[in-house]
Amino acid sequence: MRTISLARVVSLSCAAMIAGAAFAADDGLKLPAGFSATVVQEGLGAGRHLDVAANGDIYLASRKGLNAMRDTNGDGKADEVKAFGDVAGTEVRIFKDWLYVSDDVGVYRYPLKKGELAPGGAREAVVSQFPKERQHADKTFALDPKGTLYVNVGAPSNSCQEKDRQEGSLGRNPCPLLEKYGGVWVFDGTKLNQTPATGRRFATGMRNAVAIEWNAGQNALFAVIHGRDSIDTLFPALYNAADNATRQGEEFHQIVDGGNYGWPYTFFDTKLGHRVVAPEYGGDAKKVPEAGKYPDPLVAFPAHWAPNDLLFYAGKSFPAKYQGGAFIAFHGSWNRAPEPQAGYKVVFQPMKNGKPDGAYEVFADGFAGDMPDNSPNNARYRPVGLAVGPDGSLFVADSQKGRIWRISYGKK
Amino acid sequence: MKTSRMRVSAALTCVATLAALAAGVTASDTQPANAQANLAQPGQQLYARHCLSCHQADGGGVPNMQPPIKGGTWVMGEPRALALFVMTGGFDSGSRKDSDNGNVMPPFRQLPDADLAQILSYIRAKFGNGGTPVTAAQVAQTRASLPPSQ
């Protein structure tokens, strides 16, 4: 892994701005030249992740429940929509003849039968009995081709303080939450009725890796991790509001067996261009942790952008530069306030052999609109989920109104 | 979890105290509008310092994270009940199963009476709530009712 210098951070920002200048307005979204977006569906509530079957059927997870939808007349809009199941959560993935879904406390699957839009079979529990939490509770997951199930178990905490989110409270050391949270746990995704105790901790030091994805081309797991909040209000002598709005990178990592990615003891400071010790653990806004203990991120995205889905593009219809690269859906910030909110966009990170191959580009922007009062509540849309359809189109789900876009290249 | 049980216990204590306070509201708790304006102004900076990042500049909160306080029943209600709520912190999942919000408000008991009074007066005046100001004396009175170990 390589260190990201300050110059690199600046260059990334500049590249993003330049890419933005080339955008053309399209259905309210700004997309690169040659791309267009159509609205597939709207109104199903707060969307989360989605997946698209080989026949084009779309499955959307939401906090209200699961929906299956189909375009029966080829006009690009889903005209048949069926709610199904009893799972309200974030993740949904098609794997072989199954639809895997999750809520805050488990991963489940439904049989996908030919010709059946909404699964009619009984739900099976793959893993259940994760502790019920409210903070960072979504059990997003990835599956590798063998059916190994990698579950993100987010930490129910900001920075493992003795008193969560209280000014000046120091960090618990060692952080006991890491025994059951703050990492990736691995299971056999083809077996039923497992519990967290029967899984194995695969990686740790990850505050909340909502955006987790298996990269088939690299045969490896990757994630973009939500960085910590509130360095200014918790440690006002060390950081101000502008620091909090900009310095804690959203870290993109390859996740390896036994890896430790530094939460809660450290965070990647994008202003300094290196990892620093968190203020709860003796950090002074510049102190560097023990060398080699935690890897630097492949890319440190701007603070608080909230990476909520990751997808490695393997479709056939986008230009060659997109092949094997990473799309990341950023939900957009809340903890940048009072500074301007940011990050309500889909970003493309070029990749080569599992490493970044140049600066990231803003791929789809314009989701949030004017966002009056600088409030996330007033965002028009917030991108949260990504999937690729059988023709290579990119589908994007929104959490404000449940809108789903299909982004295609070279056709209207 | 032990911590969770303690919080539930603390929350229940709060609810009981709030009910007692609410029953004791008198006409002397209300103040003229000009006093409200005077109190609200310095509260803006304190709100920005301690509250804004979660509840946002417009008091609208963040979906699934922090609740809105704009027009909220706590904000509009009895001043000492609001003061007690803010000093003891929000309710966790053990007592608010109907809430979708992921974060629990930390207690702000460490703030001085005058600062709390200014913040509370500000949010009651600012977010369309039309609530009366909260005085430092009311905050002090509420603080005196708190269990010492909380």
Mean of the pLDDT scores of chain B? 73
CATH topology assignment of chain B = Cytochrome Bc1 Complex, Chain D, domain 2
Largest interface summary? A-B, 31 and 28 residues
Can you list the strand order of the major beta sheet of chain A?
12-13-14-15-19
Low-confidence stretches of chain A: 1-26
- What series of H and E elements makes up the topology of chain B? HHHHHHH
Structural class of chain A: mainly beta
Shape of chain B: globular
Number of domains of chain B: 1
C-alpha end-to-end distance of chain B = 17 Å
The fold-level CATH name of chain A is Neuraminidase
Number of helices of chain A: 3
Q: Helix/strand/pairing class of chain B, anyone?
A: mainly alpha
User: CA-to-CA gap between the ends of chain A?
Assistant: 40 Å
Keywords:
heterodimer; A: 412 residues; mainly beta; Neuraminidase; 3 helices; disordered N terminus; B: mainly alpha; Cytochrome Bc1 Complex, Chain D, domain 2; 54% helix; 0% strand
